[in-house]
Amino acid sequence: MDVMNRIEFLKEKLDLKNHPEGGYFKETYRSTEKIGGDRISEFPSGRSFWTAIYYLLEGKQVSKFHRIKSDETWHFYEGTPATIHIIHPDGLYEARYLGSNLDSGNEYQHVVPANSWFGVSIDDTDGYLLAGCTVAPGFDFNDFEMGDAYKLKQAFPEHKEIIESLT
């Protein structure tokens, strides 16, 4: 099966929909256990402990810079390797490589720390990436913030080039 047919197959079989940050997704799990009661947390009572999604990028699509209040673990499933671009709250830039070629420094999974700006690009724009993302405490769009290019460049001028490519 060629790449384009594989992408269409995955979108159909996994019932993937457009994601606001780019690419396609489907939530596959939301824990029924909730934060609440006497738990001390910055998260509101009623938040799921954790959530999981499938996430697909194709070709030149990118996951645009965004941040959330939870840790997010990326899991490589198939396709071409991808780069997770992270700007930590202290301004440190880090590139992590998600993929199956462990001899080249790829990782099958990587945790993006809470409150870090991050985006993802595919290393081979003729390919695709099928990944999974697990968020704990569970993902909620109330915690989701898309990156504004102007504000990010003001805060992190040393990362102007990557900010422009992922906003």
Helix content: 10-25%
Radius of gyration of CA atoms, rounded to a whole number = 16 Å
| Main pleated sheet | 6 strands, antiparallel
Oligomer: single chain
Model regions low in confidence, pLDDT < 50 over at least 5 residues: none
Strand content is: 35-45%
Can you tell me about this structure?
The chain is mainly beta and 167 residues long. The chain is built from 3 helices and 11 strands; from the N terminus they run αβββββββββββαα. The chain has helices at residues 3-13, 149-155, 160-165, and strands spanning 17-18, 24-30, 51-58, 62-67, 71-79, 82-87, 93-98, 109-112, 117-122, 128-136, 145-146. A 6-stranded antiparallel beta sheet has the order 1-2-3-10-5-8, with helices on one face. Strands 7-6-9-4-11 form a 5-stranded antiparallel beta sheet. The protein starts with a helix and ends with a helix. The mean pLDDT is 93.
Put the structure in a nutshell.
The protein has 167 residues and is mainly beta. It has helices at residues 3-13, 149-155, 160-165, and strands at residues 17-18, 24-30, 51-58, 62-67, 71-79, 82-87, 93-98, 109-112, 117-122, 128-136, 145-146.
